[in-house]
Task: structure prediction
Amino acid sequence: MSGHDSKYFSTTKKGEIPELKEELNSQYKDKRKDAVKKVIAAMTVGKDVSSLFTDVVNCMQTENLELKKLVYLYLINYAKSQPDLAILAVNTFVKDSQDPNPLIRALAVRTMGCIRVDKITEYLCDPLQRCLKDDDPYVRKTAAICVAKLYDINAELVEDRGFLDALKDLISDNNPMVVANAVAALAEIQESSSRPIFEITSHTLSKLLTALNECTEWGQVFILDALSKYKAADAREAENIVERVTPRLQHANCAVVLSAVKMILQQMELITSTDVVRNLCKKMAPPLVTLLSAEPEIQYVALRNINLIVQKRPTILAHEIKVFFCKYNDPIYVKMEKLEIMIKLASDRNIDQVLLEFKEYATEVDVDFVRKAVRAIGRCAIKLERAAERCISVLLELIKIKVNYVVQEAIIVIKDIFRRYPNTYESIIATLCESLDTLDEPEAKASMIWIIGEYAERIDNADELLESFLESFPEEPPQVQLQLLTATVKLFLKKPTEGPQQMIQVVLNNATVETDNPDLRDRAYIYWRLLSTDPEAAKDVVLAEKPVISDDSNQLDPSLLDELLSNIATLSSVYHKPPEAFVTRVKTTQKTEEEEYSDAGEQSYSDSPARVAESGASPPASTANPQHPASRQPAAPAALPDLLDLGMDNSGSAIVSVDQPATPAGPPLPVVLPASSGQGLQISAQLIRTDGQIFYSMMFENNSQVPLDGFMIQFNKNTFGLAAGGQLQVPQLLPGTSASTLLPMVLFQNISPGPANTLLQVAIKNNQQPVWYFNDKIYFHVFFTEDGRMERSTFLETWKSLPDSNEVSRDFPASVINSVETTLDHLAASNMFFIAKRKHANQEVLYLSAKIPRGIPFLIELTAVIGTPGVKCAIKTPSPEMAPLFFEAVETLLKS
Amino acid sequence: MISQFFVLSQRGDSIVFRDYRGDVPKGSAEIFFRKVKFWKEDGGEEAPPVFNVDGVNYFHVKVVGLLFVATSRTNLSPSLVLELLQRIARVIKDYLGVLNEDSLRKNFVLVYELLDEVVDFGYVQTTSTEILKSYIFNEPIMIDAGRLPPLGPAAMFMQGSKRMPGTAITKSVVANEPGGRKREEIFVDIIEKISITFSSSGYILTSEIDGTIQMKSYLTGNPEIRLALNEDLGIGRAGGRSAYDYGGSAGSGAVVLDDCNFHESVQLDSFDVDRTLTLVPPDGEFPVMNYRITQEFKPPFRINTLVEEAGSLKAEVILKIRAEFPSDITANTILVQMPLPTYTSRVSFELEPGTVGQTTDFKESNKRLEWSLKKVVGGSDHTLRAKLTFSQESHGNITKEAGPVSMTFTIPMYNPSRLQVKYLQIAKKSKTYNPYRWVRYVTQANSYVARI
Result:
């Protein structure tokens, strides 16, 4: 061993590359080894030493493992850029894979698998086959991982050569390292395949549970994670599994503990005995708490997971709230998570202790933490009715310290407390008003103004207070302007005296003539009209009783919570997002989850004027609209059943049948709001494409006892920015009647950020009922435009011009093409246009094109054996991120 | 599975970079570093250990000022990755003796060799130094360890006490001593990190001990070892937190652990019977057992804070600490800190007459008082008077705008839990075989806070 490696970083006068070249070809072993080290050093700092490829490869044939490893490291890095030269190494690789030394055999296979060059891959198969059956476990475990590598490069090759079966055999290997790697490799392959490859049966289950006890800690995680997908047949089996897994909770490795917790939580769902469940909860508590003694990074992961666990099973940690008290040296990201859990665990029993902590945190230095602590006090007040008063007195104490951001935060939460307990704590308003001058944040200002307006009749100088804000009206942010407008109207309605009357003039003038904010202007006009036509009606609307808000500390939607809980110990449980929201490579699963859950929740928090505005703007109730577009209505109910199944009907009824078995009497549109949840109102709807335009085809059925009118619709932000292109035209619906309508839709209005998905969130209101929210699915093929047809030459050029990385493919194992003609006609009806076809062995290969708005083309290749299930779809497009949605659409179209 | 692993210096230079799967774009190290840096500048906050940028998940831990980072595109187990990053740091440290930028750069070939055995195609293979030894062929190049801060809690043995052989901590598990022969020795460290929150009236609000029995073996031939702990050691609090539990356990003098876990090499066959652990220690440093205690214990330090207002623009803070451990024990590197009101403009300090090894400071930037003491002997007390001058009138309640007082310290040869290694038995190879055994105790403050 000669000196320090860092000397290899030093440069020479002569010119580095020629000098290295010379040294690499030296007759002395040591000199060659040193030279390779220098090359690697240059490589790691980013210098291009690829020109030495041949010389380095020449050093490969050596018995010296140290040198061999170095050369292999070099090869992995540069083989891709020198594929023609890489072939020089193949012989040595193949020879090495049969070396008597198992380390060399394993090293050869490991390295070959890392070189993603076709010529190397071809030669990999034979050595891999041998190594999978090698006598030495180190070689077998390396080979197991190598199968996953090969699958990533060339999946077909793996299947053709029977490597999957060899891999499955390794699950029964007598070496636990081999078993663990085989499980990891199979799990990865399953992840990228749509066919069932690695299914865990009760047989494999018991084998893997046995292997678990002998595995390394990392292998235990692989196995536990793979097993967590297993669904036990009954409570007894679940109990058995849990019994085998519980000892893992004692492991020093946090990853093992969390994966074991996940497994136990999942099996607990099936266990019926309350004693067993209680006992398990008791067993899980200490290890979960112990995770908080690990490094802060691990603590963070543990806390994010615990946050989910306590929402589902609050009893587990109900007595452990103290361990979530913040330490002064916790990193901020740990403190924030602890606060969140403290709120969740707060109860009438421990609230005094908790409040004492929050109060202490609220005087710390970190501003964000302090704000969150203040907010936490408010959330406890809203959550625990009996503790509300104590919470408020703590807030008042904090306000008295007069630290600016504490005061503002306190006022924001007090507004929420007033919403939760109306007419209960107004006595503190006077104290709040003392801090009026210090407010400079929009949210705090808006909250204070809301309080003044809401309680205008009890505040003697409410008019003076509001007036002080009015002077700066034009400069205020929109949030504050809107609140000022509403508060002034409230004041006027409650105290219709001269002062307020003048104020309302000023405000309405400011908010209509002098502003260019449409929200503000519209709201002001509505108030104006209301006040001038019928002040009593205005009172009914503006001063209407507001729905009481509730605690949001369990804010996750139950279905999302369940999905996240099934993903405990994964990133999904740290981000609190379903995997498909952030994993870009994974195949999209059939169901799309909502990402924005906050909407419904915020609605209940948001102030009433927004609703007032809505109802004020609704068209006169009973006038049936004369321009009801009956002529254009394809009247989904009247859509002729397509007896010949020729796909002539492009209104989308073909798609409907997927979601809903077409019962002749039933409505052809899928029900999006069943009568049972709509208080008798049933809504069926579906996006369709007709005459080159997208419509939301809807049917309303009134099964309630009252006539319904004044229907309005709104769409939440979505991937495509779909929004209503006009008013919703629905006449008054008498009980027992129904009406259909076609709502024209426009694109690119309110585009939601984040990965593309097919979720369409819709809100419908009418004059008699609360607002209904429901989720619909966007069928991607409604976007296929009529001008999607391509010339053959254009198709070829486009295909060539797009990089290979834009090519994505997917198998539809269940789809069948029975007749090329029928299928093509059917696809053409959905604007997927046929370009060419060819035969490949017994397979038909079809080429088609489609286009979506903004001229984004999709070039499609469908491969199938006629009459046999299994269609392969490959596409190339400038927008590969849309591929999952595209595949979903094609699959749907092929099924029908 | 992870896609890449890299180590960045504090300045963001990439010291080690290994790509395992090639599915993450090249600039990931820069993207990561920029994100972490701006996280701080934007919100004054520390970036969480796990975050996602453009579909790439970044995981990181900080070890001796270096950032150990992994990337991935899949929904994998974050605790696995974070734990892995810590273990990689430990394995490298086992091999290099010292872990820092310099040693990594000098040994980059060895480090890459290690990384290829530890992870294959993104899947962890092993992090056991013992197992790795059979696959690793490069030898470490030692750097001058004397002036370098080593890794981990055992580092505290480096300072102060003469009884500790300082070189042991920075010795590589594979390299030979100068002179060719390896010294046969084994270290067992009982390290306890304590957290206490005192209320303003001096009551203990919460207290907790996070303990580790850490082992580092340099024995050849890996003989079996038996560690005996307190015979009356109890595990798990029976039922809830009743007064009986606290009273009962404290009264009988038994040590009761809330929870504990063990290294996978530990055999627990006789643990339930006589509280002995049997293991064949693998090479390298590893925790034999981690434990957690919330049973009440005697706090080593009491803190007394008095704040007196003297007119509208002045106040006096009197800080008093008393060491409540035996007089043959000495705590070192004690630091007492207290945030002062933001409108504090000047502070003058007054120490007791005749004190040595104490310094005081007022950190203007974050308005913090700092009082450091080199050594505190058991049973002694120390007082600091600080006169504060304010730039504006206080809002009336200084105690709400100052504090809490926090303390950090290290106390060698002392552990508040009274958990003990009664004996350390090494299976004998021959009569003359008598390796050095070091059993060392140390206590360190984790979050030691007194509210005012």
